[in-house]
Amino acid sequence: MEWTKEARYRELEDVTKEELTALEKIVNECPWRQTYHIQPITGLLNDPNGFSYYNGEYHLFYQWFPLGPVHGLKHWYHTKSKDLVHWENIGVAIKPSNQFDSHGVYSGSAIEHEGNLFLIYTGNTRNEKWERFPYQCLAVMDQNGKVTKMDKPIVNEVPKGYTDHFRDPKVWKQDGHYYAIIGAQKESGTGCVVLYRSSDLKEWIFAGEIDTGLKDFGYMWECPDYFELGGQGILLFSPQGLESKGDHFQNIYQSGYVIGSPIDLQKKQLIHGEFQELDRGFDFYAPQTMNDPQGRRILVGWMGLPEIDYPTDRNGWAHCLTLPRELLVREGKLYQKPVKELENLRGEKSEAEITVKNEFVSINGFSGEAYELFAEFSEITAQEFGIEVRVGEHEKTIIKYDSNEKKVIFDRSHSGQSVGKDFGDIRKCRLDAKTVTFQVFVDISSVEVFVNNGEEVLTGRIFPQQNSRGIQFFAVGGQTNLKAMKWNILKD
Ligand code: FRU
């Protein structure tokens, strides 16, 4: 199907039930539908939005174009959960409906206020010349889940000095005030974030640009997020336009953070160390965090990237969200651990403890297409060792450690149908450790690897054949002790 402008900007109301049913049928025939990840019923999912805890439940919205695997007219789709693991699809929460969001209800965030959940987002509009005008808008969700849009934007102009790339408000409360940061592009063509302040979430004052010291760091910073953890200030953002550098910045766009002293809201200044990538794999972008009632800082990302074709496109859908990760600060670095509740998904268990020496071994009970796998490698003399998952006759996805280079390597060059080939199919990241653990979540079309308790995370979509279900452990140029555990994750 050709995605004309008309097709991309068609309103959901104008689509017949029959059309939607036909689309759903094609989507459901896709061999790569996930089993325990949040994915769209049809169409394209991108950024997580409005991630929050409200009225006794976790709420997670996402950017959604319902009609196909392209970036068309965006809505906020609503899901909710009691445990961060079993998510209920609620439906569209915010749809484009007026002159302030006619060309898309773009990304934003949520915060509780006076018993309601305030949803703050960017309304994207375009004129006949297809010039863009962003507005920052507000919708309010009540305890019954009813969402009401405010009829006027809360920020109706872009301040002087910035372009129309001005979006993705992330709001938080501090010292009795509300603050929001917005991703922006300066007229000089570089990315940055700006700060707004409010006392009631309705009237907002532009406070100015945040001085991060990063003067020429990409051309646009999308989806910023600010929070404090372990006494430190952390600014997350997704910069576009960074050149790749060694093993770094290998994807089309990046997502990462800077960490330092808490932000000085008066001076609008953040003093911090170097920009660090959050995920060293392939498909990860525009993450958002929330603080939950247990005091945890939890992150969810888009397991996808813009401007790349994926094999599921042919079946009318694209992308999913990552599993929720708890963030922890250790020595100036964010560690990311799969949230504890994911243990609720564990089914039948297999276990093994062996020595692997210059060989590739398969172990009884270790196979499948949707599971959690934990492997600890110790007493290592091998030059290279690791795991192959989704192994078939001609397919395998490799997660390994190279002891000479001291690097973790994620290789999807033989994973099945390829994706994003132009950006390479191997990712590497440095890790200096005597014992290496891989906690791997495999779903029908994805792999998320948490290395050494979340010191590094590598995420990637893969598109193997259904019968590629093998798991192999290996060691080359020496040996390693291996302790392995695997739990099936059942479709619900
Ligand atoms: C990031 C992004 C945001 C924007 C949204 C539109 O992926 O480009 O900046 O709000 O997607 O869907």
TrEMBL record:
Superkingdom of this protein's organism: Bacteria
Keyword tags: Carbohydrate metabolism, Cytoplasm, Glycosidase, Hydrolase
Domain Glycosyl hydrolase family 32 N-terminal, chain residue ranges per copy: 37-338
Catalytic activity, reaction form: Hydrolysis of terminal non-reducing beta-D-fructofuranoside residues in beta-D-fructofuranosides
Glycosyl hydrolase family 32 C-terminal domain residues: 341-483
GO molecular function (one): beta-fructofuranosidase activity
InterPro entries: ConA-like_dom_sf, GH32_Enzymes, Glyco_hydro_32, Glyco_hydro_32_AS, Glyco_hydro_32_C, Glyco_hydro_32_N, Glyco_hydro_beta-prop_sf, Suc6P_hydrolase
Leading EC class: hydrolase
Predominant location: cytoplasm
Catalytic activity, EC: 3.2.1.26
GO CC list: cytoplasm
Compartment(s): Cytoplasm
Pfam family, one: Glyco_hydro_32C
SMART domains per record: Glyco_32
Pathway(s) where this gene product acts: Glycan biosynthesis; sucrose metabolism
Ranges in a coiled coil: none
GO BP terms, alphabetized: sucrose metabolic process
Function: Enables the bacterium to metabolize sucrose as a sole carbon source.
Family annotation (NCBIfam families): scrB_fam (TIGR01322)
Name of the protein described by the UniProt record: Sucrose-6-phosphate hydrolase
Organism: Niallia endozanthoxylica
